[in-house]
Amino acid sequence: MPLGHIMRLDLERIALEYVVPCLHDIGFCYLDNFLGEVVGDCVLERVKRMHRDGELADGQLAGPSRGVAKRHLRGDQIKWIGGTEEGCEAINFLLTLIDRLVMYCGSRLGKYYVKERSKAMVACYPGNGTGYVRHVDNPNGDGRCITCIYYLNKNWDSKLHGGILRIFPEGKSYVADVEPIFDRLLFFWSDRRNPHEVQPSYATRYAMTVWYFDAEERAEAKKKFRNLTEVSLKIAKKHDSGREHPSDSGPMRGLAMQYPVNVAFTMQEGMHALHNEIPCLAFFVMDHVIVVATQAWNPGCCQDNTPWTSSGQT
Q1: Coiled-coil ranges per the record (predicted)?
Q2: I need a surface site. Which of 14, 105, 187, 311 has the fewest CB within 10 A?
Q3: 140: domain range?
Q4: Residue 288 lies in a domain
Q5: The domain spanning residue 72 has which CATH number?
Q6: How far apart are CA 186 and CA 209, in angstroms?
Q7: Which residue, 8, 24, 217, 184, is CA-closest to 112?
């Protein structure tokens, strides 16, 4: 049986027997040893190079160009990656596998129909005690339904390095602490069911995040974006002409500007259709070819099959 076919069967089994049930039961789950050491190292080295070369910029609280960077609230540095850039073959392989997992979840995601995702957001917390305050990825219906984070931190000790992702599941009596360890892949619902925070990091912390979109909610968000942008432009023209309306400085102007900021990042960063085929990724190591297939890709889960810790109250 071809190795590619074996990999597809494994991905489908993991999606249907683990990811889907966990998302419905508790709202999140993670897989350890997702890529394996060889491919995971390639992804890590590419991300480290981006960091060394100064390619990362301060993360924004809302939107890319119109957002606000406040390091006491959000202390990461980021870059958006499509996976097709030169030298990003391993990242593209990772994104393809994640796409496959989400595709195999299919109609079992409840009301959601996923056919697109964002680019990958490479993020680095530089280890100076910065984190990201409690927030919701999609509080206002911008289309994001699943948040997926891949961690890249070797020898991470949360007691020394901090950097835990803490999820506050809606209506639950516990919080979920997820350590950002190397080759761990985390899924959770993007909406108000999962407020979360990144606790202060005291060592360099790398992660890569992609968001998957529900087609119907995303279409509605784009429609609102266009309508509210038109309202904002009309208000601006009235203001510039000196014919100010009472709504110009009131809630209407605030709402007209706030919603586009909340959804604009995906308009700017682009939408990607999910990959249908898993690429064959080969690495040349000391004149030998290592084909990355099932033997180098060892998906797992937490040892006790309970991917959360009851470490406090919401």
Answers
A1: none
A2: 311
A3: 6-218+263-280
A4: no
A5: 2.60.120.620
A6: 9
A7: 217
